[in-house]
Structures are given as structure tokens and as C-alpha cells.
Design a protein that fits this description.
single chain, 611 residues, alpha/beta, nine-stranded mixed β-sheet, 30 strands, elongated
Length: 611
Amino acid sequence: MLNHFCKKPLWECHRTLIEVAQGKRPAECVLRDAKLVSVTTHEVLEHADIALAEGRVAYIGICGHTADHCIGPDTLVYDLKGAYVAPGFMDGHIHVESAMVGPSQYARAVVPHGTTAIMWDPHEAMNVGGVAALKELIKDSKRVPLKCMVTPGSCVPAVPGFEDTGAAIGVDDIREMMGWDEVVGLGEMMNDPGVLGCADLPLGEIEETLKAGKTVTGHFTMGDTDCALEAYIASGVSCCHESVTREEALQKLRFGQYAQFREGSAWHNLEELSHAITERTIDTRFVNLVSDDNHPETLVSEGHVDRLLRKAVACGIDPISALQMVTINVAQCFGIASDMGSVTPGKCADLVVFTSLGSFDVQATFIDGELVAEDGRALFDPEPYAWPEELGHSMHVGLSITPETFRIPARTQDGTVLPDGEALVRVITSAGGSTLTKEEHLTVPVEGGCLLAMPEKDILKAFVFERHHATGNHAAGFAKGFGIHGALAQTVAHDAHNLLVVGDNDADMALAAQTLIACGGGEVAVADGQILGKVELPLLGIMSPRPVEEVAEEVATVEDAWSKMGCTMPSPFMTMGLLSLACIPELRLTDRGYVDCCTYRFVPLIVENEV
């Protein structure tokens, strides 16, 4: 696959590199006296010099050799005084939109932490605005040095027939996008039942990706690590970030699939998954570290891939092996290792400088041989992007929402209204740090023909409103695990990004919903008629045009509001946002109703005739 993410293709500049390596032409830049982390041999090379030209590595002085012969009068020389140098960090699976900003602002946050490339699945934006939205995001990404490598959404909608999205992506769209220079693969194939059933849409998308010689990324949650997993891999899916147990990850590795160990703002899987390799002597070349979803506050305060590396080392993973998992392993997974992923002659000069192999305290970041971040600060600051007006007008609920909207009829499937008393209902139970939910059957009060919340038992009302086509369509259920008093609403609700509202009383729920409709989308926390925190996300209802630091401050304020309302989850808005994601077990709520995500069928709110 031709890599369009380098300053120049190798065949255009190899003559220059040949001459620089031999001292016949001066290098543009030389990094002197580095501890070079060799991810090709799993060792640290002391007192290394690295000469750069044309955005690539021309020469490495090791074993007593120096780059003195590469230095001319105009060569820029950095004396690293024994600091470590490693290949630029690569996140093998990330949704930029989860940071609630566009790619140029995202780059400002992550490049100072050593990230030089991301494998970006923009299915969040595509679920709202389709291919047109992706084209605008790509234009924004081109204004910054971060290598934003796109894997366009394969499942838009995530589960056809179970939710209403703002757009739909088909085989023809994927065929077109596979011809784009910015595209390196297919976004996570969440329709694993469709793949196993040989459905035309998912297999057609995979076929177009394989024909283009690009990587199919995965999302396998079925739990069967025998026939189902092997069939899924045999379809052409090369990697998967959805392992939640060490056994799942190990089986993927054994079957030759890249196991992507995830550690995001809310999804904390790395500690468990690390046991797959720390308790065995196995080759780790098929392991990637990925973040999947990060809130802006996490990026600003804790970091990005450097954060993953610190956590990996804390979990017992060898530091150099961890570095391989965010460099050469990722490059090999996506077929770009001939250009990226190692600091070796001819490769792109994407480099990270840090002083400790354990803490990965990034001091400087180079992309294509240019210093782009130093001492925690990006050396680029693009002007605000001129987003098209249509991307800022995506709230089309088609319904006047009032407190009465949140009354849940105590009506069975045959239309019978239950008398006052109690009813057995399905409840979505969430847990902090996990993408999975549980289906529980719990009793709630029935009063005046309506089902009531039970905040004393942490059983809250949950509503999803279609907000793309003004249909007025909405559905109700119950949620457990958040422990709050008041109401929470957000349009960051994976993957359809409809309007999601959770709360213990109708008045606060109505205020929360009305607030987001008025501001164009985002996140809000309400209690006793007061807005405790709000993040306005007018771009597609999931992103802000403002600087990432400002958005991070607002997110921190909202998370503080969550805490004051009684929630103890990490990044609770992310966990809440998955209540409507109908492609992960067990139970979810979309604008069309409850979905059993194990059998992929709609199920009623009220449980009848349970033995």
C-alpha cells in the first residue's frame, strides 16, 4: 500500500539519503548522543547519533560511530545528552470525536505527548453527517502535522434496523473511500452477526477494503473464541480492540489477529489484558496498545499514548515491548512498516524524545524530521476551522419536550394498562470502566398507569430521542449503576448520537433535554431545576469548535457535577453514552426500543410471565 503520510515517498528522496549517509551531502538535522530504543531488536543503543534529511532517517551512528560526517554548516544539531529517542507513538484505534474537538485541536493535545500518527475511525461523525462530514474533518486534519490515518466507518448505522441515524454508509461509499489517499483501512466491523451470517453489506465492505490492499479493523464481542471468532478472522478482519478478558486476547493472538489492548478514559481493560502476555513467554508482535475513546480532560491532564505506556509498565509489561506495541507493531498491522514504526535508515523521521524509559516523560516530538512539540507545548496553532453551517445544525428532534414526555406508560405488549402496584421491568445495568452492560429484571412502582423510577435503589428512567430527521420517535427504559439524583442528557450517545436522557425525576429530565436542544447538542447535568454543568457541542452535536483546553475545562466541570450528584464512575458520560450502543452485550436502548444485543431482537420493557 502506498503511504501518503510521509513528506516524500522514498523513491523521490533515496538519492539524497544515500549521499547524506556517506557524508557526501550534509544532513538537515542531527540528533546527537541519544539512547536509541531499537524496536527492531528490542534493545537500547547508547550514544547514538541520528541524521535526518528529506523528512526521513538517513544515518544512525552506533557502536562507536558518530554522525560527524553528516554535519554541515547549515545542519541543525540537537545535543540530547543521553535522552531516549523512540519512534513516534501511534494509536492503532481512536475516535477523535470522543475528545469533543476536531482533528486539528486534537493534534494540539496529543502531539506534545509523543503521538505522531493515529488510526482514526470517524464513525461517530459519519453516523450524524455521513461522508460529507468526514470530508470536512479530513480537511481540518491536513492543517496540522499529526498523521491522521482514516479508517472510515463500516457500520453506519452500527446495527441496521435497530436505530435511526443521520446517515447510512454502503458498499459503494466504502469503495470510493478506499481510493482516498487519507484512508488506510476500514473502521471497526461491529456487525459481527452480519459477518458470520455472510450478509452482503458487511462482506461487501470487507471485500472492497481487501481489494484495495488495506486493513480491516474489528469489533468482536460475541464471546465465542472458537468457531465464531475464527470465522470472523477468516473474513479478513486483522485486528480487534474489544477484548475484555485475557483469554479472549490470547486466542486472538493465537489465531494471528492483532489484539489491541484498550485503555481509554472510561474503558479500563489493560490491567486484565496484560496478563495474557505477562503470565506467559509468548511473542508480543501482534499486540497493540490503543485508547479507543478519550475525553479532552484526559488528554490535557494525563496524556495520550504516553499514558498507555505508563499503564502498561505498571501492569508488568517490559518498557521496550510496550514501545513496540505503539510503534512497529501498529505499523505492521496497517501495512506501513516500510515507511513508519522504527528509527531505521530510510524510514520517516517521526521521533519522540524522553528522559525516562519508565515514565515516558516526553520532551520533544519530531514529525517528518521537523520539531513540532517541545516541553509539553505544540509548536503549531492553526486558525479556527471554518466549519460549514450545516454541521452546526444537527438537532432535529421533531417533538416539544416537557416533563410529561417522560411519563412511561405501564402498558404491556397487548395494550393492557397495569393497575397501581408494582411491575417487573428490564433494566440496563452499567459498571464503571466497562463497555458491557447487564440485563436485570427488577421491580418498579406503578402509579396512575405509569412506571416510576426508584432512585433509592438506583433505578433511573432512560429515554432516547431521534434527533436527525425530526421524526419525534423516542423510546423509554430504565438504567442502573449511575447513582445520581437529578438528570443527565447528552447527544454523545454511541453510535447514532441521538438525544439520550437519564434521570430520577421528569422535571429535571425535561430541563436537561431542552437545554441541549437549544444549544445544538452536548452534555448537561441538572439537579433540582439547576444546571450544574454543561458542555456545548454544536458541531454535529458531538464536537466543539473551541480550543481543546477550554473544552477540557468544561468537561471537568461536568464530571465534578456528576460526582456531586452521587456518581462515582470514571468518565461517567462515556459509560452513559453506551446505553444506546446496540452492538455490545447485553441490553441497550435505542430510539426504537430495547435491544437484546445477544440475540439481536427487540424486547419489551415490561417482563411478563417470568418463571
